[in-house]
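Input chain follows. Return structure tokens only.
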Amino acid sequence: MFALADIIDSPPFSLSRADKTALYVRALSALTNYHYENCVPYRRLLDVLGVEPGECENVEDFPFIPVRLFKEYDLLSAERAKIVKTMTSSGTTGQQPSKIFLDRDTAANQTRVLTKLLSTFLGKKRLPMLVIDTRAAIKDRNLFSARGAGILGFSMCGYDVTYALDEQMQIDIPLIQAFIEKHADEPILLFGFTFMIWEHFYSSLKASGVKLPLERGILIHGGGWKKLIDAAVDNDIFKKELREVCGISRIYNYYGMVEQTGSIFMECEAGRLHASIFSDILIRDHRDFSSLPAGKQGLVQLLSLLPLSYPGHSILSEDVGEILGEDDCPCGRMGKYFAIHGRIKNAETRGCSDTYASRSR
């Protein structure tokens, strides 16, 4: 039987391919059986598909569910009375958002694992934190959007948390300057969603001519790439332009979604997204859903060992990606590393930054 407690204290990027495969066969078997027994819609789906959870022998054999099902159904593997938090994805106007139901144990696991992942990039000491967003994003502590959940999750690694934007999404340069001066002798953690950083932080600084002294800053950002790529802004340009307006050079992108909060994929110093021991990735051929080898593009299947209160341990996203390699990244981290190439054609806009962009046009 698998228990997250068995690996929670292990270094997040420490397992070789063989060891991780053995762990995931055992863990996915336990999780699939658990959700089969405790989530009626999930059980019905597996029964219709003719899947017997106990008969899966390889990681790629375990069933996955399309991420869009979280928009259509309330998928719970815990009693509703034990749900302490409901998180929602950010759908554009008129779209049904995903709903993710967390009990106390799942919420605690997400927070603990996210903190462990970030500590490998930031160190174990909390840093003064500047959030490139507005405080209004976290108003409702019981019903979280992906945006609010992201801010609060990453805030676990910060102190003196300060918001760079007012409620009208306007940058407060004097407030930011005072914050930087207050913490002049410390590294500063900056966090935000990619499009919003570009639209409200970078663009405003560029227009004002103000250059902030953030050479010791560490920026973590994710989501909202679609609008930037449409504007011919890729990851390299994003980093270069941010460096121009505030001197920041340590910039890490991350990939993740509200359906698997906590088990995010961080970009390393070599510019590659990495799977930790708490999560993994498979690439599926869109024609027959067979598993594809490294170097082939297909639909991204995401695996997570964290979800207990809902069947989110194996989901098929609407993103297109490619595994680049495993256990041999120049950064020294073990596990798969990969690239995301965008969304499948005609997939709806999702993600808090893309949603914000569509509403603010």
